[in-house]
Amino acid sequence: MEGALEGVGSVLGLAGRTVFFYIVVLVVIRLMGKREIGTLSPWDLVLTIMLAELAALPIENANVGLLAGAVPILTLLVTQVVVSWLSLKSLGFRNLIAGTPSIVVKDGRIIEPELRRLRYGIDDLMEQLRQKNVPNIHDVEVAVLETNGSLSVIPKSQRRPVYPSDLGISTGYEGLPIPLVNDGRIDYRALSAAGLDLTWLKQELERRGIHDPKEVLYACLDSQGNLFVQEREKPGAPG
Q: What's the CA gap between 194 and 178, in Å, rounded?
């Protein structure tokens, strides 16, 4: 019986440590700022890997105290904040840490010495060009390999999409739609920001045969004042 209780206690302790370091790492990443994984610089990538390792160590080893496990993670946070501040203040320091963008294509010609210096293959270049919907190298005005490994492509003027301004066509303002109902829940702050109230929303839903906002999967208001509403699928309804 005692062995079983010790086993349960060990499992609960491990679960508690896992939750604790999950919260610590989550808070640290939030404080580091918003950055997508695909746009991580080498410094950010190293930092992310180290965070994962430092969080895993005290979770797996019960002999490492919570404070001893949290201190290295918080130290990384302070280091990242300092490095970010120095990067903002010094261009040279930023170039040292993150590197500099490199022009790999100019006026439809591949810059071969730059590819060799970067150890970047032509196959890799063509793959990224295809992902940018520019399969022909002759259509590229400039292609820049960014510090995070992504490729920025500026097509030649004759190969760029035609915009309304090119044709002298004026267009109206198109802002982001305002979500009013999400999975049956009304966003009262968004409703108020749009200058509307619950009575208006219910009237609009009634016009569509919807008697309860909980029946709505998603509803939003565009910049032209048009309301989009999608109902939840009713049980037994065909998919």
A: 8
- 178-231: CATH topology is CRO Repressor (3.30.240)
pLDDT of residue 30: 67
User: Can you give the pTM of this predicted structure?
Assistant: 0.60
Where does the pLDDT of residue 190 fall: very low under 50, low under 70, confident under 90, or very high at 90 and above? Answer: very high
What phi, psi does 178 have (nearest 5°)? Answer: -100, 115
Tokens for 149? 């490994």
The pLDDT-based confidence of 7 (bands split at 50, 70, 90) is low
User: Taking phi first (over 0 means left), then psi (-120 to 50 degrees means alpha), and beta for anything else, what does residue 67 get?
Assistant: alpha
pLDDT tens per residue, range 47-100: 778 888 888 888 777 777 778 788 888 888 888 788 878 888 888 877 777 778
- The position carrying tokens 């810059």 is 111
Cβ(197)–Cβ(191) below 8 Å: yes
User: Which string of DSSP letters, residue by residue, matches the chain?
Assistant: -HHHHHHHHHHHHHHHHHHHHHHHHHHHHHHH----GGG--HHHHHHHHHHHHHHHHHHH-TTS-HHHHHHHHHHHHHHHHHHHHHHHH-HHHHHHHH---EEEEETTEE-HHHHHHHT--HHHHHHHHHHTT---GGGEEEEEE-TTS-EEEEE-GGGSPPPGGGGT---------EEEEETTEE-HHHHHHTT--HHHHHHHHHHTT---GGGEEEEEE-TTSPEEEEEPPPTT---
**Domain 102-159: what homologous superfamily?**
bsu07140 like domains (3.30.240.20)
